[in-house]
Amino acid sequence: MFKGRQNLTREHKALILGFMARARENPYPNREVVTIKLNDRVQEESEGKKVLIETVFEMNYKTGMWRKLQYKRPHQ
Fold first, then answer.
1. What per-residue confidence (pLDDT) applies to 31?
2. With 80 as the cut, is the pLDDT of residue 67 above it?
3. Is residue 62 within 8 Å of residue 32, measured between CB atoms?
4. What is the DSSP letter of 37?
5. What is the CA radius of gyration of the chain?
6. pTM reported for the whole predicted model
7. Is 4 contained in some domain?
8. Contact 39, 5 (CB under 8 A)
9. Is 19 within 8 Å of 52 (Cβ atoms)?
10. 67 in a domain, yes or no?
11. Per UniProt, which keywords does this protein have (predicted)?
12. What is the pLDDT of residues 8-52, one digit of tens each?
């Protein structure tokens, strides 16, 4: 899961692993949902248009659920 994740710090990796192991002490008490950026890359789409694809890991401390998301944005 962490292979090739250039934006991930040791602290963020430990936070994700702890959350997945059911450690529910939120280090950011003012936010219920914590999002950590895992990776981003530029990809060429149809017609030569480039997009930025950002992969994030989202942890919801209220529900205990997590998910991995990808966001696609136009790249200049």
1. 94
2. yes
3. yes
4. E
5. 15
6. 0.82
7. no
8. yes
9. no
10. yes
11. Elongation factor, Protein biosynthesis
12. 889 999 999 999 999 888 999 999 999 999 989 999 988 889 999
Confirm whether 47 is domain-assigned: yes
Domain around 42: 10-74
What does DSSP assign to residue 68? E
Residue with tokens 């949902």: 33
Task: Report residue 48 as tokens.
Answer: 């030569």
- Are 38 and 8 in contact by the 8 Å Cβ rule? The answer is yes
Q: Rounded CA gap, 19 and 15, in Å?
A: 6
Q: Which of 68, 31, 32, 33 is nearest to 53 (CA)?
A: 68
Residue 1 pLDDT level (bands cut at 50, 70, 90): low
Rounded to the nearest 5 degrees, what angle is found at the Cα of 39, between the Cα atoms of 33 and 42?
A: 125
Task: Note the pLDDT of residue 4.
Answer: 63
Q: And the tokens for 39?
A: 């990776």
In a domain, 58, yes or no: yes
H-state helical runs in the chain: 10-20
